[in-house]
Specification:
Layout: E1 5-7, H1 34-37, E2 47-50, E3 68-73, E4 83-94, E5 98-108, H2 117-132, E6 138-143, H3 152-158, E7 161-166, E8 169-175, E9 192-194, H4 201-210
Parallel strand pairs: 5-6
Antiparallel strand pairs: 1-9, 2-3, 3-4, 4-5, 6-8, 7-8
Amino acid sequence: MAVADIMLTPAITNLLLFGGSLPWTLLAIRSRTQQDTNLIVNATQLDYRCALPSDNVTRIERLTDDSADFVAVDPTAAEGEPVAGSLEYALISRENYGEWVYIDAVDVRKDWRRKGVATQMIKQLLAYMKKGWPELDGAFLLVEPLNPNSPQNLYKRIGFVYKGKSAHYDGFAFYFDSSSADNLPTDLPPTAMRLPTTNDYFVVDTLHDLFDPVEPK
């Protein structure tokens, strides 16, 4: 699958997503005041897109230099403070295992938590992937089972299903041919998306751990 920068239109032709970095990397982004967050109080009012160089998205560690960030942005925020949430993603493709998007490092800024940002951000990313690249099989991610604030129930509500263990993590997958995929957003604003491919050994091993190889037809 080619890597390209795509400007999506209402009749989306090609588009992509990506994930990657070690699970549970947290962002250190300065909180805004309650007065600021009162301007927008609902995750559906945020903008969702790929991160721009000007966005304040930092990571302690990235899975691969070829991964990209997808962000939830507050359009009313002060300059330099628009990012309410972010995740990292990348394409992983292997013969007989299909083409998948690995999602990692899902994080929401402290003053935006418990407002549905993570749910909307992931759904928007999945929707762009499914509509722009119908050849993709779906997306997968890992959950730290010992994390007291594990988001696995959030992922299950979106439509991710448990796939098993990879290392000491719990793996979950979202299938684009599932009934949950039929409920993804369809009113997607045009946005530029790019699809980086990762060959990171950790992601490759995770793919092999979670999915059975499919014999070629």
